[in-house]
Specification:
Aspartate Aminotransferase, domain 1, 12 helices, alpha/beta, seven-stranded mixed beta sheet, Aspartate Aminotransferase, domain 2, four-stranded antiparallel beta sheet, single chain, globular, 2 domains
Length: 384
């Protein structure tokens, strides 16, 4: 069955019945016999769809988890209230005092913060590797346990060669976790490229409407058991309303990302013609770091791009004049966004930048209107 068809049928119930699984709210699940209660508690240790207690999710969350596991090509999926909680959930089960973690230097800043302020405090040592690393041998220590990557990179979108990196990691008996929020299971499938864990902030494209917070960790193989145990022990779960919103968002994920991708690439191709622009960061552009790998491993790009302006240009004033691009955190909703970006803050391998940088998210508006909005702001800057 094609992926587009699956999106429309995830969670489908027996007919006659609703097209979307209903919101099921519950904490206590009742039983008629002690035997039934004991059997349910035993079954839930290996079957994540068992309805046993609200902390482990209700049927609404179970349907979403099953859908995301299938979408990413994983064996199991565990849901979290936010994307950052999912990052923590993907790392914590496999790391303890005395262990060593490798992290790509271009990681999402909140992930770096968790590593620096939480994992280190609990005795985990952390080192960072360049985005183009494929051979981990120079960085591996006897106590190294896991590698955390993000591809394309946060804010600058460098594309890692995940098959090569995973082969090196597994040769050293290391686990690999990938932040796949950019691809969201649709454009990019890290588990098929060799990773053990895929982390997605469903707040972005999976929810798709800028109104739900969610994180997910999809896993396969030997990592599933420890992740299941940790998630249950730490009480991580997703409320049924958010699960419903994200399951609904999945129905249009393919169509929305098609439009986001078209708009984002169109803007990435338009900006370089503006004299105020020094560089555009977008994996779909020839010459972008890792572009050939992205063409090989991904099925398209999303709506993100980062524009590096020439020195002296008032980038924030440019953003303030925009009418269709709002200013706000996050991305992946239907709306277009623009906000200042400082991707090299905290990085150990920073790049030389010409001037101010702005991260754009191309929404679902018509591309002609988005271009006209940007052009009008440039015209004002040029005194026209």
């Amino acid at each position: 069955m094609k992926r587009e068809t699956k999106l429309a049928h995830y969670g489908r119930m027996a007919t006659p019945g609703p097209a979307n699984p209903p919101i099921v709210k519950a904490s206590t699940i009742l039983h008629d016999t002690v035997a039934s209660y004991k059997a349910t508690k035993a079954a839930r240790e290996t079957d994540d769809a068992v309805l046993s207690y609200g902390r482990r999710g209700t049927t609404t969350a179970h349907q979403l988890a099953a859908a995301l596991a299938d979408l990413e090509g994983g064996e199991a999926c565990f849901l979290f209230p936010t994307g950052v909680a999912a990052v923590a959930g993907a790392l914590t089960p496999y790391l303890g005092a005395g262990d060593h973690l490798l992290v790509v230097d271009t990681i999402f800043p909140a992930t770096r913060s968790y590593c620096e302020k939480s994992l280190k405090r609990n005795g985990v040592t952390v080192d960072y590797i360049p985005w183009d690393t494929t051979d981990l041998t120079p960085y591996v220590k006897p106590e190294t346990k896991l590698v955390m990557v993000e591809s394309p990179a946060s804010q600058t979108y460098e594309v890692m060669d995940l098959p090569a990196l995973c082969a090196s990691a597994h040769a050293h008996d290391l686990l690999v976790a990938a932040d796949n929020t950019y691809g969201s299971g649709w454009l990019y499938r890290p588990l098929e490229l060799g990773c053990d864990l895929s982390v997605v902030a469903g707040t972005k494209y999976i929810g798709g409407h800028a109104d739900a917070m969610m994180g997910a960790v999809i896993a396969k193989g030997r990592v599933v058991g420890p992740l299941r145990a940790h998630t249950a022990m730490s009480g991580q779960t997703l409320g049924p309303d958010e699960a419903y919103a994200c399951l609904r968002g999945l129905r249009t994920l393919g169509l929305r990302l098609e439009r986001h991708g078209e708009n984002g690439l169109a803007l990435a191709q338009w900006f370089p013609d503006q004299p105020e622009v020094a560089k555009v960061h977008h994996p779909g552009l020839p010459g972008h770091p890792g572009h050939a790998v992205w063409q090989r491993d991904a099925s398209g790009s999303n709506g993100l791009l980062t524009v590096e302006f020439k020195a002296g240009f008032d980038a924030e004033g440019f953003v303030d004049r925009l009418a269709l691009f709002s200013i706000g955190s996050s991305w992946g909703g239907f709306e277009s966004l623009a906000m200042p970006s400082s991707p090299d803050a905290g990085r150990l391998f920073p790049e030389s930048r010409a001037g101010a940088m702005i991260r754009f998210h191309a929404g679902l508006e018509h591309i002609d209107d988005l271009v006209a909005d940007l052009a009008a702001s440039f015209d004002t800057a040029r005194g026209r």
